[in-house]
Amino acid sequence: MADTIQEAVTLALDEAPERNFRETVDLAVNLRDLDLNDPSNRVDESVVLPAGTGQETRIVVFAEGETAVRAAEVADEVLDGEDLADLGDDDDRAKDLADDTDFFVAEANLMQDIGRYLGTVLGPRGKMPTPLQPDDDVVETVNRMKNTVQLRSRDRRTFHTRVGAEDMSSEDISSNIDVIIRRLEADLEKGPLNIDGIYVKTTMGPAKEVPV
Q1: What gap in Å lies between CA 112 and CA 90, rounded to an integer?
Q2: Quick one: how far is CA 50 from the chain centroid?
Q3: pLDDT of 3
Q4: What is the per-residue pLDDT across 37-91, written as a single tens digit (0 to 9) for each?
Q5: Angle at the Cα of 159 (from 149 to 26), degrees rounded to 5?
Q6: pLDDT of 126-165, one tens digit each?
Q7: Which of 22, 110, 129, 167 has its CA 20 to 30 A from that of 200?
């Protein structure tokens, strides 16, 4: 499969028109034979890409004390319990933070307050934080999430995810796609039979089918 994926990626990169900005490389997945009105059938997975996303990933950490100090080394922003309460009183600021952030991480003991103050903002966006247990290394967790993408179909048969950037090698992008396809085939009820088609493209370029 790896060779056929790479062929599709190479075509997508070669046929992408010149642009004056750095394009992302995206994957479109079409599903079939699934009742997506049933939430249990929906795709909702975090996948760590072996070659990275090729893009900046914005991560915000809710933490206090030593964990907050360490998180500040790697996260884009660190917020404490007081900040959390302030966000709960400012709906517009909370929504802006949610929309501008790719992933949230939070100390487990703050999760209840996050649910209370931000649940209605983060929940519908699929951005509730990854809980950080006392033994977890916040630096390691944040660095891993910088290479993570979210696969989320919601109730739609077609969904998209980022798999790289146009200046990455076709080999690296292909390895990212291979990991995503393997995860989907393992998680979907009927495996490959639930996949109607997969396409790879740059932001503004033509879509090329990825054989599965």
Answers
A1: 18
A2: 13
A3: 73
A4: 999 999 999 999 999 999 889 999 999 999 999 999 999 999 999 999 999 999 9
A5: 55
A6: 899 999 999 999 999 999 999 999 999 999 999 999 999 9
A7: 129
C-alpha distance from residue 116 to each of 42, 79, 103, 197, 210 (Å) = 26, 16, 18, 40, 43
Find the Cα–Cα–Cα–Cα dihedral 131, 133, 137, 141, rounded to 10°: -20
- CA angle 109–111–116, rounded 5-degree value: 125
Dist. CA 132–CA 129, nearest whole Å: 9
- How far are the Cα atoms of 15, 57, 163 from residue 19, in angstroms, in the given order? 12, 22, 19
Residues 21/190, Cβ–Cβ less than 8 Å = no
CA distance 50 to 127: 22
Output the average pLDDT for the chain. Answer: 94
Owner of token pair 């062929």: 7
CA distance 139 to 148: 15
Helix (H, G, I), strand (E, B) or coil at 26: strand
C-alpha pair distances (Å), 88 with each of 82, 84, 107:
10, 6, 18
Tokens of residue 175, six digits: 């390895």
Q: Is the pLDDT of residue 2 over 70?
A: no
Is pTM beyond 0.90? Reply is: no
106 CB-near residues (< 8 Å, 6+ apart): 61, 62, 63, 114, 129, 130, 131, 132
Alpha carbon distance 212, 103 (integer Å):
29
